[in-house]
Amino acid sequence: MSDEHRADDPEPVAATVRDYYEALRRGEPLYPYFEESPATAKVGIGETLLGYGATAEALREQTRVTRDWTVESHRLRAGRRGETGWFSDLVGMAWTHEDDPLSFDTRWTGALVDRGEEWVFVELHVSVAHDPETGAPAGFGTNLDGTDTDDSGTDADDSGAGSP
Fold it and tell me: What is the pTM of this model?
């Protein structure tokens, strides 16, 4: 394999995303997956965190008050050019926040950078699609107009497995 081809191999990016999902399931610390930079950004279902400090603090609190995570990856895609990577995924999530069970069909996107021994997030965005007319969650697998989502493109892992 040529050096040029390896520089564009998306598997290290996809592997980092899958590792993050597994850490979430296990209740392990998530802040080490983020770049220690004031430019780091994490947008969640109900929050916008700017800077590593705010991100790390919020993730520590999330780990403290949540449990019983289910994270099911349905359409992980990853790309890479040199030391920069990106991904998108459709993820079914469920967890318990204190005593309240929650679940969402979510859309994930993010950007990562290679730091030699590891890839870290510089940006992570998790959102829930809502029907603009009803405000109800739209779920995934369909566009807001009811048509199927485009399944074109290359999967980072084309094994067909539903979860990472």
Answer: 0.80
